[in-house]
């Protein structure tokens, strides 16, 4: 398979009153068509910055992003973003919110009837067909997030960028959304980059988990390939040895980074203290472990 998205050696410096702040250093990642990649790392390490550079909202200080052979210099409909807080226009119905994006992308190429069919199709894909004429204020948080995803999918983006899309949802709704996303991805073969704080979510959904070091000057610490067969079912995976091995690997990475933020594991002197610390895998208190409570 060929590389669809090339995040090539990016550095990101932000100007601040105290001088330039280096958020990212040499982030280098090649993503193939149809891959599902998660970005995970401690709060403030630079995950959203990576996503914003790919979205074209930020320009990297060094390096760049190439999508399908073309450099990304500004936002574009081929890179749709889904945020944690849905960002729907409150005075428009679910249908009209999706319509706005569809008109922007297909206004010249699809007829009115074709656009209507396409909008309905995408709302049905996320199981929102029954509530498409409701406004955001009349539907639940999970439903709003579904509309946000339908809007992004309806743009037929080459890459779907998701910044903690399910972060604000309760556990049950979140599980439903994860299952829907897996179904949709199986059907459409979307290329997805998703930021998450949730280790189980990362392992369940991803082909690769990109683990970022702590900032400043954050970079990619390790990449874990998740070779679990699809379709994946959360209940079956709970007892799967390989699944639990992947989960433990991510937790271990996060624990080690948290105990000694900016020192690479190989250079640490306090290996004894490290060994005496409770193993990351002993955290079994909650079914879903997040980065912040993993530490
Ligand atoms: N526009 C900006 N100006 C200055 N500093 C910034 C700017 N945007 C981000 N930063 C800094 O860059 C670093 C990375 O921020 P970023 O939001 O990418 O982290 P994150 O990993 O997505 O965090 P979280 O998981 O908490 O959302 C942080 O130290 C942040 O304060």
| SSE run | EEEHEEEHHHEHEHEEHHHH
Give the end-to-end Cα distance, rounded to a whole number of Å: 37 Å
Gyration radius from CA atoms, angstroms: 20 Å
| Count of DSSP-assigned helices | 10
CATH superfamily heading of the largest domain: P-loop containing nucleotide triphosphate hydrolases
In total, how many beta strands? 10
Number of domains: 2
Bound compounds, please?
adenosine-5'-triphosphate
Summarize the structure.
The protein has 295 residues and is α/β, with parallel strands linked by helices. The chain is built from ten helices and ten strands. The chain folds into two domains: 3-72 and 167-294, Rossmann fold (3-Layer(aba) Sandwich), CATH 3.40.50.300; 79-156, no CATH class.
Explain how this protein is built.
- The structure is a single chain.
- The longest helix is centred in the C-terminal third of the chain and has 19 residues, at 241-259.
- The chain starts with a strand and ends with a helix.
- The strands form 2 sheets. The chain has a 6-stranded mixed β-sheet with strand order 6-7-8-3-9-10, sandwiched between helices. A 4-stranded antiparallel β-sheet has the order 2-1-4-5, covered by helices on one side.
- It folds into 2 domains: 3-72 and 167-294, Rossmann fold, CATH 3.40.50; 79-156, no CATH class.
- It has helices spanning 47-55, 94-106, 112-125, 141-154, 171-188, 199-205, 234-237, 241-259, 271-276, 291-294, and strands at residues 3-14, 21-32, 36-40, 62-67, 70-71, 79-82, 159-163, 191-195, 208-212, 220-225.
- Helix 2 (94-106) packs across helix 3 (112-125).
- It is 37% helix and 21% strand.
- The protein is of the alpha/beta class.
- The structure holds adenosine-5'-triphosphate.
- Adenosine-5'-triphosphate binds at residues 14, 16, 21, 23, 41, 43-49, 215.
- Residues 14, 16, 21, 23, 41, 43-49, 215 line the site of adenosine-5'-triphosphate (ATP).
- It is an enzyme of class 3 (hydrolase).
- Residues 7-239 form the ABC transporter domain.
- Its main location: membrane.
- GO terms for molecular function: ATP binding; ATP hydrolysis activity; nitrate transmembrane transporter activity.
């Amino acid at each position: 398979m060929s590389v669809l998205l090339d995040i090539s050696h990016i550095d990101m410096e932000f100007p601040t009153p105290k001088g330039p702040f280096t958020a990212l250093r040499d982030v280098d990642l090649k993503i193939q068509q149809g891959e599902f990649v998660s970005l995970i790392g401690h709060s403030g390490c630079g995950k959203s910055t990576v996503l914003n550079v790919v979205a074209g909202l930020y320009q990297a200080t060094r390096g760049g992003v190439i999508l399908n052979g073309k450099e990304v210099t500004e936002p574009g409909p081929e890179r749709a973003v889904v945020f944690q807080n849905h960002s729907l226009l409150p005075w428009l119905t679910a249908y009209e919110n999706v319509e706005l994006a569809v008109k922007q992308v297909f206004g010249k190429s699809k007829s009115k009837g074709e656009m209507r069919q396409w909008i309905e199709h995408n709302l049905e894909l996320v199981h929102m067909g029954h509530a498409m004429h409701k406004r955001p204020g009349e539907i639940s948080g999970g439903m709003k997030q579904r509309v946000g995803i339908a809007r992004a999918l309806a743009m037929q983006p080459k890459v779907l960028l998701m910044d903690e899309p399910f972060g604000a949802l309760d556990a049950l709704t979140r599980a439903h959304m994860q299952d829907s996303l897996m179904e949709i991805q199986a059907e459409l073969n979307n290329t997805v980059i998703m930021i998450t704080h949730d280790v189980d979510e990362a392992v369940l959904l991803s082909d690769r988990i990109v683990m970022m070091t702590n900032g400043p000057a954050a970079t990619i610490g390790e990449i874990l390939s998740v070779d679990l067969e699809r379709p994946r079912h959360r209940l079956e995976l709970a007892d799967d040895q390989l699944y639990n091995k992947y989960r433990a690997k991510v937790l271990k990475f996060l624990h080690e980074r948290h105990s000694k933020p900016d020192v690479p594991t190989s250079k640490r002197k306090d290996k004894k203290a490290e060994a005496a610390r409770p193993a990351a895998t002993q955290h079994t208190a909650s079914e879903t472990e997040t980065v912040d409570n993993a530490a």
